């Protein structure tokens, strides 16, 4: 089975071209104009086939988000907040640590840092001014660790250091993703309990951020902001030759050729990616704030942000 | 002859797939590590074939520019400055007006406005403090007019208004372009005496900016920052089927299909487009400043910018 | 009477230190938590005393705006929109032209350009796609002309050129202002039918933008973003010596001395000026959009912006 | 002795108004147009008087830096690089960790993060591609940890976590400072071996970053970007009353009054602070890169940065 380059489990499943894969459960439903697709990979084997670790992947899709429709954005923030609060269990001690992955200076990779800018952090209030800290508030801290080429420090090293100091009970990672279908850029959100795995994301993290590497549950929230140019080209070619098996070899040759001539560095993205990333970062942050502060109103959250 | 979507005359010529086209002259040479390609379209007819107006198109290419090699950047700024000063004739009265086309808030379309930010303007010095205005200085003014969707005003309307007030002797337009080959993104500069024509640029100007529409010579300086995703897909498909004429129809079908599913809005661009556009805007501005202020040193120009 | 440096007519009146000035009418009231102060300068003479042209100046003040209180922001946008729509008469033909004064690259001076980015422009829709142009829509265009040091073109020259092309029936200018009291920075808005006069604004326009210079009504909307450091120092000194008339000469000496040592270039501004200017630009744009599109809902306006 | 609010030890010494303070050594010299002032606080007692910890403070001043004079900027980068390399001893194992303090979204506080963006990091090259890691290269990593209100994590907690993981042999902290004299804003750099102490910086770190708190040598590089408005007002008042001792009480009253009415949040800064901070961050980063990579040329450093 041929694997295409996408960070969305639902696209990996679709690309496999089979109605059903043993060990993989797929559910669809729709709420408030948002299409929900849940892919549950029950077995490691099935995961290898799809190039994704075992776990739950929930994708929320709504075209209106990219068209900046107000109702669509509210619906997405609400539903994402609900699903996220279902995944975060406030059972242990310690804060929740929100991690914004990616590079602030590369627009399609800046989703994580931008979302962090709008995440309500409260941990310091408990420590510095405990008498004022609202009983209804939960402890949250946040960091945008930057990327390896800018810091010289692996993200996993940095987060592991912080985990040993902050002792969070859970981590939420926000990241830009790649997709296969242009219609999902800026209009889909994937939520997963598997964390971040190597080779995913626009910034290409080398090492996993998950319960194994960090010792606490890691939930990842991602939004596709790019298609890899080579994927697009490959797809275009497959489209042309879908019923001609003998072309497989020619396809491989051409893909290699395309990658050689710089296409490997090229991304496909909407012209309006700057405003799209800003918008979506706001939606993600709103969902995270609601999920992590269930007893505060939107107005209170807004007022507490500086 | 099939036309592909590129703003570079040299790529239109290459795409035509012929060694020679009547009425089109092509010259190649290399200086200081920069490849120069001059396409002169002598006849209107030949222009129609290439989808480009009659005139001179000079492309300077240097891969090192994109790799941020210091020597390559200096060589490019020097050569571009020389060629530009050859095109601008300081014969009439009045200032030279530099126009930065494009949208500051869309990264690959922000080249023009960014270059304007670093262009030395002097016209007000002659008017406001004539006694201090350096005799060696020439009168230059600059504007980034914004795009139709942001202003509600056609660029040509705005520039025509300014021309009637400022009475410039020449206009230099700086714009982001589209290309066909990914290797030219951020590493090639096209200089032409034909101005800007409809449908070109990343921002898609609807009406021409040229001597006909504005009444003064219009020189355009452009740098490719994107490939249209549909062009890339089309190219990939052509590559696959280069020797199969019967596929032509299938290709057209698929291209239409690709465009329908949102690809029309998608662009292909390097991941590092943010820093690339900033870098190249600096090179263009340096070349423009040298060409327009031949009697000032680089240090004097730098010191006069606020 | 000593004049202090402020762009707010209400502060000029207060600084005059008199309960009443012949030819000046002052009214106060409060609505929805917003303090309104109307200063009407009926006579040219009285205007000279206050250093402000004859006309109406309405100041809306609400501390909650700076504290990012949601209700305060909505109240301010609503009231400002109402007052603005009262000032703009849609009697003639032609669009309304919104002008964002100031320099995008100097944070406290960037209010105008930032507000323009969020102003709904529609003029091109009437021209390009008349059959789709909504009957309920009014024709609006917008420009951020940049500042003299960046363009080499006086703002009044540029706007006058555009007026002769666009033939607007009215102009709304948005600008950053200076104030005397730190409590008004980012929390007050001044609305006036006198346009912009020389020496006002953070960017210091040299020539008036008003009905005399442009031939159409000019309404100015301004928000104080800075206090001049020399004003602050002067004020501190006056505070100390308020009952000692003999110090007047010493004060003048010291003021001159302070200005000499670079204070003339220095501004006093809140630490959080970056987010404050962004917020306030949003409020101004919302008010402008409502005033200029009274028949469109907020949702329709949002959906029409790209 | 009255202490004024400044992060520059040389200004604290001047403000003390004495020619000599026991336990404090002051040296002046000039090189390449740069004024050097070294304040060595030999005794803790003397430090308390000046409100600064015991240690060496070197201030480099050059007005031309703020006027964007090319020679001045080069001279500053060269001298700062030399002095910095004198302070960093490469004796132990491990990388040097460069920390950019401050808030990227508050212009006068963004110096540290901006400098980090241009710091060459190499640590990952040794780890990931040891065979290619240049023998002449030294191991450097960098982080902009953000501020407490954005992360909920004290800077000292975050850096201490990283120290335990990275085991750096030294730390260089880059920060925005406050000064008393407007002439030093953007034109002076302070270098000290005492690290960062509570209450200093534009962002007001609550806890020290120094050898005591972090266990490794901490060198701080700071540039004044603001004067506190209350300091400016106080200074203006003192200037007026310098020979009138009986005003001391009145001064205190007025200072309190000024602080009450919001002046505590206000800063005094040059209008052009945006470009000034960008420029100075470039100078600091150039100096840091030279000090930390003495065997690489400027061209090699530039080429290695992405």
UniProtKB/TrEMBL annotation, chains A, B, C, D:
Residues 1-7 form a propeptide. It catalyses: Endopeptidase action with P4 Glu or Asp, P1 preferably Glu > Asp, P1' hydrophobic and P2' Ala. Autoproteolytically processed. The inactive tetrameric zymogen termed p46 autoprocesses to a smaller form termed p41, which is active only during spore germination. Its EC number is 3.4.24.78. The keyword Disulfide bond does not apply. Belongs to the peptidase A25 family. This is Germination protease. It comes from Candidatus Pullichristensenella excrementigallinarum. The gene is gpr.
């Amino acid at each position: 089975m041929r694997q295409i380059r996408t960070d969305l489990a639902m696209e990996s499943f679709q690309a496999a071209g089979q109605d059903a894969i043993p060990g993989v459960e797929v559910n669809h439903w729709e709420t408030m104009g948002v299409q929900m697709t849940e892919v549950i990979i029950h077995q490691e084997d099935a995961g290898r086939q799809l190039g994704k670790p075992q776990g739950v992947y929930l994708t929320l899709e709504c075209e209106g988000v990219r068209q900046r429709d107000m109702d669509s954005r509210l619906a997405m923030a609400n539903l994402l907040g609900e699903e996220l609060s279902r995944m975060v269990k406030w059972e242990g001690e310690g804060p929740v640590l929100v991690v914004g992955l990616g590079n602030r200076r590369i627009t399609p990779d800046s989703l994580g840092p931008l979302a962090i800018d709008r995440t309500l952090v409260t941990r310091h209030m408990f420590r510095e001014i405990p008498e004022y800290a609202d009983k209804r508030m939960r402890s949250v801290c946040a960091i945008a660790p930057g990327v390896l080429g800018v810091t010289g420090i692996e993200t996993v090293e940095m987060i592991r250091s912080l985990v040993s100091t902050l002792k969070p009970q859970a981590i939420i990672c926000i990241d830009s993703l790649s997709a296969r279908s242009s219609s999902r850029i800026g209009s889909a959100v994937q939520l997963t309990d598997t964390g971040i795995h190597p080779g995913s994301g626009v910034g290409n993290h080398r090492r996993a951020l998950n319960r194994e590497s960090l010792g606490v549950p890691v939930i990842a929230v991602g939004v596709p902001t790019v298609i890899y140019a080579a994927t697009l080209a490959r797809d275009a070619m497959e489209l042309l030759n879908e019923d001609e098996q003998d072309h497989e070899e020619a396809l491989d040759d051409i893909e290699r050729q395309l990658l050689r001539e710089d296409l490997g560095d090229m991304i496909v993205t909407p012209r309006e990616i700057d405003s799209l990333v800003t918008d979506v970062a706001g939606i993600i942050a709103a969902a995270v704030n609601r999920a992590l502060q269930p007893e505060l109103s939107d107005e209170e959250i807004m007022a507490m942000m500086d």
